[in-house]
Amino acid sequence: MSPLLFPYLAARIPVKRLYPILMSFYPVAFLTLPLLNIIARIYRVPGTEAELTKRGTVVLWTALAVPLIITRIAHMCYATNMIFLKHAAPSRASLGRTFGIGQTVAAVARGISPALARCVRPRKPHTWD
Predict the structure, then answer these.
(1) What's the maximum distance between 2 C-alpha atoms anywhere in the chain?
(2) What are the beta bridge partners of residue 52?
(3) pLDDT score of 129
(4) How many domains does the chain have?
(5) Phi-psi region of 19 (alpha: psi -120 to 50; beta: other; left: phi over 0)
(6) pLDDT, tens digit, 9 for 90 and up, residues 103-125
(7) 101 and 60 share one domain
C-alpha cells in the first residue's frame, strides 16, 4: 500500500505537514485494539470462553483488518523520515554518512527504549504465594 499511496500523498501534502498526520494514525490504531476484544466477547458462543459464532468469526477477522490498515498507513511516516534525512545532509557526498548516522541513532533508540521504559515504571516484584 505504501508504494502506491505515499507518492500520491506526498505530491498533494507538504512532507512537513504529512509527517504529523501520519504519526497521528498510531494512537488510533492502538485504540482500536480493545474493540477487537469487545467484538470477541459479544460474538462468543454462550457458555464457552473462547469459541466464536460463525458470524463472530467473520466480524472479528474483518475488524482485525482495520488496525492493520491503519498501522500500514502510519508506517509511511518512515518514508518521510528518510526525506528529512536526505534534506539534512550537508552535501551529496555525505548523504550515505547522514543516512548511516540516522539509522544508527534509530537502532540505539530502539535498543535503549525498553530499559528506559522499565526505569520510568518499574515492575513490582512477584510474590509466589
Answers:
(1) 67
(2) 44
(3) 56
(4) 2
(5) alpha
(6) 999 999 999 998 888 887 777 77
(7) no
Q: How far apart are CA 86 and CA 80, in angstroms?
A: 10
On whether both 125 and 79 belong to a single domain, the answer is no
Cα-trace Rg, the chain: 21
| Amino acid identity for residue 112 in this structure | I
Is the four-CA dihedral 110, 113, 115, 121 of positive or negative sign?
Answer: negative
Instruction: Give the phi and the psi of residue 128 in degrees, each rounded to 5.
Output: -95, 85
pLDDT digits (tens, 9 = 90+) for 69-115: 999 999 999 899 889 989 888 888 999 999 999 999 999 999 999 88
What are the percentages of helix, strand and coil residues in the chain, rounded to 5? 80, 0, 20
**16/10 Cα distance (integer angstroms):** 10
Q: Which domain holds residue 14?
A: 2-88
Q: Can you say how many angstroms the Cα of residue 3 is from the centroid of all Cα atoms in its chain?
A: 17
Asked if 73 and 5 count as a contact pair (C-beta separation under 8 A), the reply is yes
